[in-house]
Amino acid sequence: MQPTTLPDTDFLNNLFTHHLNCIYNGKQFLKKNIGRLIDMASSKKLRIAMQEFASDVNTQIARLEDIYKATGSAPGEHMCNPIKALIQDEFCLDKEQTISALNDMDIILYVQLIEHVNITSFRMLLAVAKKLRKSDVVQLLKENFDESKENDSLFMAIAEEYIGV
């Protein structure tokens, strides 16, 4: 459906900053809490994947900070954040789980949910950045988008090993 009027540049910039703050604050929250997820993983392969994921989160945060610089803006607080909500929900995992594979599958599920939020957020940011003709920002967002898709695929491959696919 086409809007009746095309959005103006101010609206697009506000939309971009809003979603950038959303993803940035979610990534910062994840960075502070990912260690607990890594510690909960029972398999070596999952722990290694989680450590790689943690490294990617740091890299993505650095790119997001570069985007703030390129757009002349600064991170703002965003209280309603789907990534924070998912991470907080994750920490309700049953730590008394006696079947470690179930615990690992729960971790994989939560990480994939987070990555799907990231993929969707980066897709939205890419569309707006392209409309605003911010090619330097588009490149940084594309790198984060691609990295999130790769992480999603990695965790899906690990999940498939657990279920014998």
TrEMBL record:
Gene3D superfamilies: 1.20.1260.10. SUPFAM superfamilies: Ferritin-like. It comes from the Bacteria. This is DUF892 family protein. It comes from Mucilaginibacter pallidiroseus.
